[in-house]
Amino acid sequence: MSIATQPTSVPLDTEQSQPPEWQKQHLLVGKGEADTQRSPPFSSPRHKKSGSLRLNGAPKQQKAPELLVEDIRDKDGERLTSLKLAFDDKPKPSRTQTELVSGRRAGASWDRSHIHFAPISVPFQRRLQTLMVLAHTLSIALFLTAFFLLCAIPLFWPFLLPYTIYVTLSAAPSSGTLSHRSPFLRSLPIWSLFASYFPARLHRSSRLEPTRKYIFGYHPHGIISHGAFASFATEALGFSTLFPGITNTLLTLDSNFRVPFYRDYALAMGLASVSRESCENILSKGGANGEGMGRAITIVVGGARESLDARPRSHLRLVLKRRKGFVKLAIRTGADLVPVLAFGENDLYEQVTSDSHPLVHKFQLMVKKCMGFTIPLFHARGVFNYDVGLMPYRKPLNVVVGRPVKVIQAMKGEKPDEAYVNEIHAIYVKELERIWEEWRDVFGVERGLELRIVE
Question: Taking Cα atoms as reference points, which of 306, 342, 307, 310 lies closest to residue 322?
Answer without folding.
Answer: 306
